[in-house]
Amino acid sequence: MLLLTVDTSTPTVVVGIGEVSRPPESIADVDVRCELSVERARGHAEIVTPMIVEALANSGVDKSDLDAVIVGCGPGPFTGLRVGMATGEAFADGLGIPAHGVCSLDAIAATGPAGSLLVVTDARRREIYYARYVDHVRTHGPSVQAPAAVAEELAGQQIDHVAGWREQAEQFGPYAETPSVPTVVGLVASSGAAAFTDTATGPLTPWYLRRPDALTLAEREQAGGRR
C-alpha cells in the first residue's frame, strides 16, 4: 500500500510517501519512498500542497496510486495544525481514499528508543506538549503544561530517554538522538492496522488540548468583544 503522510504539528512541515505490505507494527515494516521537510514557523498553508506534489514526483508515484492519507493530528498550535489536517483530509476526499489521523507525539515515539520514553514538543506560551511511552506504547497523555509542572508530575518516575524538542527535553532525562519531529516512517508506523482500512472511521479529530488564541466572530460577540 502507498500512503501519503502529512504533519504540520510542529514548526517543521513533514510530507512524504510511505509503503507497507502489511499492517505496520513498527518502523521496520515501513519503506519510505520520499520524505520532504521544511522548517517554517508560519505560512504552512503556502507550502503543504506544493510539497505533496513534489513528494509524488520524487517518488514516482501518481496520486491515483495512493491508498490512504496518514495525517498527524497533534497536539500542536491551532493554526499550523489545522492546515495539515485540512489539506490531508481534502486530498483524501478528492481521491476517494481514507484519511487516518495519528497522534504526532506517537510518530516521534515510534522512531525513539524502547523502554520508558518521554516525548515533548513546543506548545508555546512557555508550555510543552508531552506524552509518556513504554516500549513505544503510549501510557500517558498527550497533555499540555508548563515544564515545571511536568517535572513535578514526573518526580520519582523512571524516564530512560526523552525525545522531541531538545531545548526543553534534556531537563527530564537523557536525550535520545532520534528524530525530534514526526517522520514518514513514524507516522505510518503509528497508524497500525488503520493503514489497511478501506474507509475512514470519521472526520479527523485534532488534539488542540486548549482553546486557540484567535476567537471566531461569534465567540468575540458572545464574550462582549464586538468591535
TrEMBL record:
Ranges where the Gcp-like domain occurs: 41-164
One cellular-component annotation, GO: cytosol
Highest taxon in the source lineage: Bacteria
A Pfam family reported for this protein in Swiss-Prot or TrEMBL: TsaD
GO biological process: tRNA threonylcarbamoyladenosine modification
Protein name: tRNA (Adenosine(37)-N6)-threonylcarbamoyltransferase complex dimerization subunit type 1 TsaB
Species name: Gordonia jinhuaensis
